[in-house]
Structure formats: structure tokens, C-alpha cells
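Question: I have long wanted to understand how a fold can be written as C-alpha cells. Here is the record:
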Amino acid sequence: APTPPPAAAGKPITPIGSGAAPVVVDASKIKVSESADGAGRPATVVAPDAAALADALAKAAKQDNHGAAPVVYIAFDGKPGQTVRFELPLSALKDAAAGMLVSLQTADGEYSLPLSVLDFAAIAKQLGAPAVDITLQIAIDPAGDDLNSRIKKSAATIGASPLGGAIGFSMSAAAGGKTVELNEFGSTYVSRTLVVTGIQNGDHATVALYDPQTGTFSFVPALFAKQADGTVKASFKRTGNSIYTVLTADKSFADLSGHWAKSDVELLASKLVVNGAAAGKFAPNGSITRAEFAALLVRSLGLAPDASAAAFSDVAAGDWHAGAVGAAVKAKLAEGFSDGSFKPNDTISRQQMAVMIGRAMTFAQGSAASSAASSLDGFKDKAGIAGWARVSVAQAVDAGILTGMTADSFAPEAKASRAQAAVMLKRFMQQEGLIG
């Protein structure tokens, strides 16, 4: 096959929203070649020279980045639909400044890699090789016709339609013929971008993770923005790699006609965050349990279920909520009781909800949010707010996520309805940039 034109030739980089001045790896120092992926399909390999990449990283770190994370860009000027594998020498990355990002861009999408997710020592140990011999491989892989067809059929079963083709993002490290996958990043969000066709905005669209083993979808936090050239880009973040697509769906529930929470509930349902209680109904005035609210928060953050972390006497591995409870505990959104139980089926109180929302805010922000207890001064019943919940209630009130049951009453022990929980969740998600 003929060798493609040099990487980045004629293709301007797309800033990723950082306030840092862009630093681009010298295109003349990037080797572009044809190869194949693991399934034997053609792939374009984009491999910057180690010294050139190290120089760009050093330059980005030294300049004035206006308080933002320094960013180095590598852009490939290819055609849409092309599988592109970026091969970065680990030796050039391991000594980079803290907080550094590397933005890898193709015609189909962008992968913004925070170098902080790379455990260089662990990678070297797994491969049994020094960093100088290790290559970091990051693939941006548009799905083929067969996979896109399967996704379309799966989407139809939930009343949704895909907008354009799906894209897989993956990362691995290789040395001496050995490869290790690097697709889970703990509690660190990794940002990616997809080019979306067929919409003017993201009001009725959502980025979804597609599981080819089960044919199911799950919500991924994303913001949609129209570009100067008229295209719409979805910028999404998740703590792992996978196959992603953009879906559009309009969900409605018969029992929400005229209800004050109708628009918020149906928005979250269209984004695959909330589900109905029965066929075509939401049961807005029904109660919500600890397990159900944990599941909502886990979904809103785009976290993967993890039943193994749900080590409670009253949560069995086969329970519908085991994965959500485990993920919530793993992310430190929730915890059990001193007797070893989780009480998944207990209805959740407003102050318990506030604590879980406060912890979710900390997870989304990467650091603890602060607030003053004076935020509670307007509530006559503030003395009834438990000490363990006081800071979280103040945080949620300050952020506008929770309000009083009346103008001067918080009602900490009151039970929230499904509609109230959905509205709180939507406010939280918008506050943290998980939806627009």
C-alpha cells in the first residue's frame, strides 16, 4: 500500500478546551506507515520520534499555560473511517511534567491522554522491559459495517437510533512481542471526542458505551458543541476505554403528563440515565431506595458496574443492584452500616441523598468540594440535620442541587420521591458538566 502523506500535513489541530497555548509535535519528525490491527484489518501507524516528542513535552511544560494543564498535540491528516494507531515511545513520556496531556487527533475523533494515568513502573514490570524499549499504542478505530449494523439493531430495541458510526478507543503497551492492555484508569476521567452527523445540537442525543458481548448500552458523560464549520462534536469522558456511539431517543411516560418534573425525567430517560417503573410509566411519586439512588449516581458518572466490591451481608452477587452498589462503594459514593449491611431496599432520606451527591461531586471534580455551614442558616430545622450529613447538605444547597422542602425547612429525614431524585440528579449532572 502507498505510504500516506506525513502526519499532520495540512491539518490544523483542534484545541481541546484547555487554556494552554498549543504545542504541536514537528510533523517532519513523525513516521507514518501502513500496518494491520489485531484482526488483520488495515491500520495507519503514526509514530513520532522520541526526541521530538520529548522536546514538545518540555516546551509545553515550560511555557505560560495560564494555569491550565500543558497540552501536546499530534494530529493525523487522514480520511474519515480510517483506523489510526498512534505509537508513542514510553521513554519520552515518563519524565514529562505532572499534569501533562497528549491530544491525539484524527478525522473521526480525538483522544486526550492525561499522562498521570500511566503507571510507568507497573507497565515496565508487566512487560519485563525498560521504558526505552516500550511503545504506548493508542488506537482510534471507526467501527466496520457489521458492528454498526449490530449497534443499530440493539439501539432499536430500546427505542433509539445511532447517529453515524461507532468508534473504538483502546490503549496498550508493547515490548519484545508482548502486549498488555491499558483500558481502565481508576477514578481518572479520560476525555475523547467524536464527530457527530445528523444533528444541530445534543439536546436529544447521548454518547453511549456499547458492549458487544451483551448488545447493551450505558450512558457516558458528554457535552455537545457546534463547531465553526457546522459540524457537531461530542466531548465525552469516562474512566476506561471501549466502543462508543452517539444515540438519539425521545422517551416519554404516560403518567408524567402535566407533571412538574416531566421535562427533566424524560431528558434523563432519553440519555439512558433513568428508567421507567413499569411499561410506559415512571411512577414519579413513588419512593426511591438506597440501591436505586446508588444506581442513578453510578450511571450519571459513567461508571462500570462492579459486583465484586459489594461485600455486604444483604447484597447477593445475583441481585440486580449488586453491580451498582459495588461501583458506588468503589468510587466512595456510598458505604454500608456498622453491622455489615447496606440496606439496599430501605427508602433513602434527603440527608442520605445529600451525602451521596456530595461524594459524587468530589468524584466528578477530582477533589473535595467546600462549603460553609452558614448555607443552612435559612432552615429552621437545621439542628435536625445529622452531623455526618451537615457538610454535604450545605454543599448540595450551595450548588443549587437540593433545595428546602419549604422556604425555611429542609426536612432531612423526609423521603424523596422518584421525581425529586431525578430532578436533583439532573441538576447535579449539569453542575458537574456531565450533560449540557
